[in-house]
C-alpha cells in the first residue's frame, strides 16, 4: 500500500458516497446514467469472484464488499425505489451498453495473462471499467444540466483512476518485475475519456459558473 493507491481508493469511495448521498437524501437520480451503474455492477461482480476464496487483507475484503454492495444498491434505487426512479431520465440515457460489454468480453477471451475463469473475468472487468463511463458522459452531454453532486461524482471517478496511474508508476519504480500492461493500458484509456470533462469541470470552477458539457 502506498499513498497514491490509498488516495485513489479513498477518492473512489468518496465518489460512491457522493452518489449515494444524492440519491438517499435528495431522492433523485437526475443526471445519473443507469446504464453506467449497471456496467459498474458487472465490473465489480466479475472482478471480485475470489472475494470468498482468496483473502488478502481485512482492508481489501472490506473495500470489495463496499463497492459490490453500493453498486447494486444504486441500481436498485434507480430501478425500484418508488420516488427515486421517477427522476431517472430514460429518454436521454439510451446508450446501448451491451455494445460495450460484449466486445470487452471477446477481447478478454483473446487477450489475457492466464486462461482461467477468474483471470479472464478480471481482465474483462478492466476492459469494461475503462469504457463504463461513456453512457454517463453522453447523458450529461445530451441534457447539459449537471448539478453539483453529479459533477463531483464524475470528477471523483476520474480522479480515482488518475491516482491509480500514479500508483502504478510508483510501483513500477519501487517493485521489481512489476509489469501489468493490460491494467496500464485500460487505466490510461479510462483516464483519457475523462479529459474533456476535466477541462470543463475546472473551467466552471475557475470562472464560478455552472458546469455544462458541449452538445
Give a written overview of the molecule.
This protein has 9 helices and no strands. The model has no long low-confidence stretch (mean pLDDT 93). It is mostly helical. It starts with a helix and ends in a 9-residue tail after the last helix. It has helices at residues 3-26, 34-47, 58-80, 98-110, 117-131, 134-143, 148-174, 181-193, 195-206. 70% of the residues lie in helices and 0% in strands. The chain has one domain.
> Given the C-alpha coordinates, what overall shape results?
globular
Roughly how much helix do the residues carry, as a percent range?
Answer: over 70%
How far from one another are the termini?
Answer: 41 Å
User: How many H/I helices?
Assistant: 9
Low-confidence stretches: none
Mean pLDDT: 93
Derived structural class: mainly alpha
What is the element string, with H for helices and E for strands? HHHHHHHHH
Q: What gyration radius follows from the Cα positions, in whole Å? A: 17 Å
Count of all domains: 1
Sheet with the most strands? none
Number of β-strand runs: 0
Strand content: under 5%
Give me some keywords for this one.
single chain; 215 residues; mainly alpha; 70% helix; globular
Short description:
With 215 residues, the protein is mostly helical. It has nine helices and no strands. The chain has one domain.
Amino acid at each position: 500500500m502506498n499513498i497514491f493507491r490509498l488516495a485513489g481508493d479513498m477518492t473512489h469511495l468518496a465518489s460512491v458516497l457522493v452518489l449515494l448521498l444524492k440519491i438517499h437524501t435528495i431522492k433523485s437520480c437526475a443526471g445519473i446514467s443507469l446504464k453506467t451503474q449497471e456496467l459498474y455492477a458487472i465490473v465489480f461482480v466479475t472482478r471480485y469472484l475470489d472475494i470468498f476464496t482468496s483473502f488478502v487483507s481485512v482492508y481489501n475484503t472490506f473495500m470489495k464488499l463496499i463497492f459490490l454492495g453500493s453498486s447494486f444498491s444504486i441500481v436498485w434505487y434507480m430501478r425500484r425505489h418508488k420516488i427515486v426512479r421517477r427522476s431517472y431520465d430514460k429518454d436521454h440515457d439510451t446508450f446501448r451498453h451491451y455494445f460495450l460489454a460484449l466486445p470487452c468480453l471477446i477481447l478478454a477471451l483473446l487477450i489475457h495473462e492466464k486462461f482461467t475463469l477468474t483471470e479472464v473475468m478480471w481482465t474483462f472487468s478492466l476492459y469494461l471499467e475503462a469504457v463504463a463511463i461513456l453512457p454517463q458522459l453522453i447523458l450529461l452531454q445530451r441534457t447539459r444540466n449537471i448539478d453539483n453532486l453529479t459533477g463531483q461524482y464524475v470528477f471523483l471517478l476520474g480522479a480515482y483512476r488518475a491516482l491509480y496511474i500514479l500508483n502504478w508508476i510508483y510501483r513500477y519504480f519501487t517493485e521489481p518485475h512489476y509489469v501489468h500492461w493490460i491494467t496500464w493500458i485500460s487505466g490510461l484509456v479510462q483516464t483519457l475519456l475523462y479529459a474533456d470533462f476535466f477541462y470543463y469541470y475546472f473551467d466552471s470552477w475557475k470562472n464560478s459558473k455552472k458546469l455544462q458539457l458541449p452538445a
